[in-house]
Amino acid sequence: MLGKLLLSCGLLVATCGFSLAQTEIGKAAPNFTLPDTNGKEWSLANFKGKYVVLEWYNPDCPFVGKHYRSGNMQGLQKEFTSKGVVWLSIDSSAPGEEGNYPPGKLNEISSRDGAARTALLLDPEGKVGRLYGAKTTPDMYIINPTGILVYKGAIDNKRSTDLADVRTATNYVKSALQAVMTGKTVTAADTRPYGCSVKYSSN
Amino acid sequence: MKAFSGEFLWWAVRGIWIALGISCFCQRPAYAQQYNGKELVRVSLISNADSIKSGQKFSVGVLYKIEPGWHIYWKYSGDSGLPTKIEWRLPPGFKVHDLQWPLPLRDKEPGDLEVFDYTGETLLFATVEAPDPLPAGPITIEAKTDWLVCQSLCIPGRAQLTLNLGSGTSSASGASQVFDKYAAQVPKPLAKGVQAQFSRAGKNLEIAVSGVSNGDAIDFYPVPPSDAVVGHVVRNGLKLTLPIESETKALDQIDGILVVGSGENRQGYELNAAAVPANVHNLVASVGLGTILQALGFALIGGVILNIMPCVLPVISLKVFGFVSEAGERPEKVFRLSMAFSTGILICFAALAMVVILVRATGMQVGWGFQFQDDRFILGISCLVFAFALNLFGVYELSVSARATRGLAKLARGQGYGSAFFQGVFATILATPCTAPFLGTASAFAFAQPPWITFLVFMFVGLGMALPYLVLAFNPKWLRFLPRPGDWMIRFRQFLGFLLMGTLLWLIWILGQMKGVDAIVELGGALLLISFLAWIKGSFWTPVSSPRSRVMAAAAMCVAVLLAAGVYRFVTRPSQLVWEEFTKDSLEKALASGRPVFVDFTADWCLTCKTNERFAIDTPQVRQAFSRRKAILLRADWTKGDPAITEILKSHGRAGVPMYLVYPGGGKEEEAVLLPELISSQTVLEALNKS
What we know:
heterodimer, A: alpha/beta, 5-stranded mixed β-sheet, 7 helices, disordered N terminus, B: alpha+beta, 18 helices, 28 strands, 22% strand, flat
């Protein structure tokens, strides 16, 4: 029986070796500073007191395309930025990879799509993407006014590239924002994101 | 950019279709995506039969030929991508079975992303049962397939395929060999002799595999339920660890494929989560023999160590001398006597194991969870471990009731095998004050095990404890190797207390992973209470303390428990009022509505705030007044010292919380009513009535 104890002490030592997931629901979202497509620096720490949405973005990914061509993403951006939410899209595509463009080109794409986000941030080294453990485009995060992560995961529950699915899907981001902004708890706070892989640099 | 134009072209084509109002689900010719003039995935619908007869079982499948460097996805795509999909359309009466997926590859993408995919060529197929008799007319099988093909960029594709089969006679097709090739790659049911056991350790799901040769590489490709997010499998010999990143209900097992071997020789085995629990009761199937042997080995060592506890060690030499003198010069008799004595010990442990198994069975019937993913179980075990650690440190002592001791001593008196047996029982019970911490902790952990393992482990502890008697009885001369009793035993016992504390730390970590910081604080509270009770017991309720002291001690314990229960209820009682978060905007909006506004400036660490909230604000009268006036309640949480809130506190001449602002008539008043720091329900009601 002491055996069990010794075993569990061993386990204890073993578990200390693990470092845990980067971002967790209910914990403080890690701070970051990134430039946007107009050269302005944005820092998460400056948005205490506001809800912040992070959207991992790659204009050439068909999953991102589904939500922009259907007008779904812009609709969400409009709806919630008008309610004071800060909406930051982050492009973590490495140079030479799909979705990495010069800032001017990205601005062009944004105006073509009628994007209504607060800013589009550039993360070509993938530092912030890796910090948050962003896996796919889109991959969505919601941070509450006290800086706590309240949602992470997919944009909705229809894992496809089919435009028609947008209308029938349950939009997790929308329901999570509506819930937290009216003081309710988020029912699905941690979902499995779907989409293209974030095109990180290989080093 | 190339990627962009290819992508754009595809979307343009899709866009035109949608513009033309053509539903995605209507009939149209096979379409596959082009990229730089190449068709990335060429698909064909094939069958292993050209012609079928009534009632025949045959296979149909979609063969995907994938451009080098590109991949399509398995049924669980991994961190990114999209599973390939097939929808069948068959003539009436035909029955199609589940889609068969050949074993995929586990691939890495930059950024530590992991996907499960197919490269080169693969066949996804299903068995079809033809009706008897066959319907009249041609037999046309249709498959609509959707896939996502990725290199570093991804392009979706889809195709609608048809295949005509002859009817009346059965004849194999030229594609039979293709089916044979891919059928061999489909994971098989778990092979005889290969076993996998799931267990949960905090956020990790652990899979212990046995029955494969040690040199074999093993791997696990999970198929998680859609409401769960899993990480990447970590392989460590025959043990696999799968981190569970999110789940809606605690997963103690998961579907997936156990992969044995590497490269060309990989073989997949279906691990069906639903089928695993059935194995737990099967004596051989669930836990690997190695794991059991290891546990038994540790149990034996643990049992031996019990012998150097302060209440046991001095007994050993006396007992052994007793046997030797009783048996005279006949070594067989010494051996038999010590066997009888050891049997007594073992019977005690068997009884203890039965008690544990019985309690566990009863508990499970009334719905207690005895698994490590049950937080109440962890909580209970933690309290027990802590209580026993305090015992080892000597904060309090356990004692066996004097009456029981006397009764047992009577049985054990005398000579012969019968009394030697009872002396064994007696020694075990007499040793409980020292061994209880370990046996108690062991029992608690044993709750998480199937009964037969519990029993075996306890028997081995017993065997360990009996071992010195057996060995010494065999050759009493070895007594001189026995360590001398002394102060060091006390120190050793205290040292073991630290091991228990380490175990406790591990349990707290598990609990924290499951329930977060609140649960840890609750546990901390429980441990505080336990340490207080232990201190009272050790100081004022000992075998030598007076009856008066004992009564006082009991009273103090009761008061402490009641007080703790009260504090717990008070702290964890959820507020019955609905609060909105305070911001400048929310205040302005609330005032603009013209309804009364109540602002509570509070912080989690502020005891006065909590007391006010509980006894002055969240009371029936105030709740009623709030709802009658449709008051808007705002809560400004200063737990982390939000500077915006600090400023407002300062502007009202306050340095901290609590602070209460009441706007009785909504935005009509310029000034808010500022309530004192200590308030009663009356204060709140009066302020509200000012309008």
